[in-house]
Amino acid sequence: MIRTLLMRIIAILAGKALYTFRNEDDRLLYETSLHHSNWKALPRGSIVGIALVDDACAYDASIHTDPFAFGPYVYHIKDVVPLDIPISYKGNLGLNKLTEEVHAQVMSQQSVQDKIATWIKEEQEVWGQDQLHGISIRQPPAEAIVRGIKKYENRSRSMFSIVQKKVTVKRTKKVIEQPVLA
User: Fold this and answer.
1) What is the DSSP letter of 61?
2) Is the confidence at residue 2, as pLDDT, over 50?
3) Where are the alpha helices (DSSP H) in 85-132?
4) How far apart are the C-alpha atoms of 115 and 160, rounded to whole Å?
5) Per-residue confidence (pLDDT) for residue 90, from 0 to 100
6) Distance of alpha carbon 35 from alpha carbon 33, whole angstroms
7) Which of 67, 86, 144, 169 is a good FRET partner for 30, with 20 to 30 A between their CA atoms?
8) pLDDT tops 90 at residue 51
């Protein structure tokens, strides 16, 4: 098996529930970075942006010095594009595949088309634009990601890996590439 880095495009779903701050410093971090404290006014229950994730790993305090990164699993968001028009969507917890109808609505927005074309042109390996998955994130972290302020998403367990593996199909001896979704 050969492992190579693989960029992953995901939809940012602003969940209906609000984020529970870990402590007062956590609340202040969001309040000062977003210049906002009326979290209930932020869009919820909708897809608010598309992100390019370029790293997924276990948290390591010696590497992850960003105050938004605390793990235990961290996903680095290399770039993001907010949707021109948020799309109402009821997602599930964690990573979930968007319906074909919602996928088409997201991909029909010109800003999304332009950004994905740029990502494909600039990066060697980009995956996800044909089979878009979304990740549910509560507000205000979803807003911080869409504004490009928060560059890390934290999860209690691994959702996917940013590697690609080459496997040989036994019957045909053909080598195929499969993105890893863990």
Assistant:
1) T
2) no
3) 100-107, 110-122
4) 22
5) 83
6) 6
7) 86
8) yes
Q: Which residues pair with 11 in a beta bridge?
A: 50, 134
Query: CA-to-CA distance for 157 and 168, rounded, in angstroms?
Result: 29
Distance CA 103, CA 106 (A): 5
- Could you tell me if 80 and 12 are in contact, meaning their C-beta atoms sit under 8 angstroms apart? yes
pLDDT digits (tens, 9 = 90+) for 144-155: 999 999 999 888
| Residues contacting residue 179 through CB under 8 Å, at least 6 positions apart | 6, 8, 127, 164
Q: Identify the residue whose tokens are 């990740």.
A: 135
Dist CA 136 CA 12 (whole Å): 7
- Whole-Å CA distances, 31 to 37, 145, 178: 5, 14, 41
Tokens of 129: 């634009």
What the block records as the tokens of 55 is: 């790293």
Distances (CA, A) of 61 to 29, 42, 78, 151, 175: 18, 31, 19, 16, 38
